[in-house]
Amino acid sequence: MTQQALQIQGSIVAIVTPMFEDGSVDWKSLEKLVEWHIKQGTASIVAVGTTGEPSTLSMEEHAKVIKEIIRVANKRIPVIAGTGANSTHEAIELTKEAKALGADAALLVTPYYNKPTQEGLYQHFKAVAAAVDLPIILYNVPGRTGVDMQNETIIRLADVDNIIGIKDATGDLVRGQALIEGLSDKHMNVYSGDDETASQLIGLGAQGNISVTANVAPGLMSQLCAAALAGDKALAEQLNSKIANLNNILFCESNPIPVKWALYEMALIGSGIRLPLTPLAEQYRTPLREELKAVGVI
Questions:
Q1: How far is Cα 32 from Cα 16, in angstroms, rounded to an integer?
Q2: Where are the alpha helices (DSSP H) in 164-281?
Q3: Exposed, middle or buried by CB within 10 Å (0-12, 13-18, 19+), for 144?
Q4: 61 pLDDT higher than 50
């Protein structure tokens, strides 16, 4: 399947995994969230990306969340399964499972903590791509993983047939532009993974934004990405200004703590989150609530 056939472009939500207060997965709320995103114009959903708490879900739960999102989406929009792991073997097994469940693509974060070399990163992703015939999007988020995949490694991986994209969450626009230029004759697309700079990266040639903010403001993020893709810089900047403070406050504590609390405040999900993550600290609740009001989502 080619990237063109997938048409992964625009606002792509890295969706949360709703939970009850006891930490069990709230399947009914998950179904409602998927329907809401489709109605709000979200172009694609990442199931169990890092925002979806894969590090605290069991393998069975991980697969079940992906399966449920695919079922509800029912091919109306693409579903990208988060299948990254710090073990190459585990990443392959998760990606095989995603393909079997019917995912349209897989998103794989760089292996974390064990800190592979650039050659190790290349061999890791190449091995996953060789083992599973599924479109793969790489994910570089050094601020979270402690591992930074360099542009040269990403460009090298673009020669692997089914590696079709890269989520760049560095927030470094100079570096992002250099990456886009380096991939100009390749089949790999760049997606922003940084809400704060997403519209600017799209203006430089990225194809969309894999977003945390889209969880709570999907309509606005969809409009912003559409404007940026259409080259309407003035509208993109206007919309970006409207959500700039929200983008920032959604990272006042480790993601997905703030975004899950925001969705709870919006009465879209329950209050559940799994240890070692904890509910949003009291001092951040009023500022986040006020920002939700300011952008018109409550």
A1: 12
A2: 173-182, 198-203, 218-229, 233-249, 257-265
A3: middle
A4: yes
Residues in the annotated binding site: 51, 210
Q: What band does 7 get if pLDDT is binned at 50, 70 and 90?
A: confident
Contact call for residues 29 and 268 (beta carbons, < 8 A): yes
Domain segments of the chain as ranges: 3-238
Nearest one of 31, 86, 90 to 59, comparing CA atoms: 90
pTM for this model (two decimals):
0.96
Whether 149 and 157 have beta carbons less than 8 Å apart is answered as no
Task: Name the DSSP class of 259.
Answer: H
Whether the per-residue pLDDT at 45 is higher than 60: the answer is: yes
> How many residues comprise the chain?
298
Q: Which amino acid is at 87?
A: S
> What confidence category does residue 178 fall into, taking pLDDT thresholds of 50, 70 and 90?
very high
Please report the pLDDT score of residue 4 as a whole number.
41
Q: Encode pLDDT of 280-297 as tens digits.
A: 999 999 999 999 999 999
* Angle at the Cα of 266 from the Cα atoms of 263 and 270, rounded to 5 degrees: 55
User: Which residues are known binding-site members for pyruvate?
Assistant: 51, 210
State the pLDDT at residue 254: 97
Whole-angstrom distance between the N-terminal and C-terminal Cα of the chain? Answer: 40
Instruction: Determine the Cα–Cα distance for residues 192 and 169; give it in Å rounded to an integer.
Output: 6
Which burial class, exposed, middle or buried, applies to 296 when counting CB atoms under 10 A from its CB (0-12, 13-18, 19+)? exposed
| CATH code for the domain defined by 3-238 | 3.20.20.70
Q: What gap in Å lies between CA 294 and CA 193, rounded to an integer?
A: 24
- Enumerate the β-bridge partners of residue 211: 13
Helix (H, G, I), strand (E, B) or coil at 127: helix
Could you give the CA distance from residue 18 to residue 52 in angstroms, rounded to a whole number? 8
| Active site (catalytic) residues | 139, 167
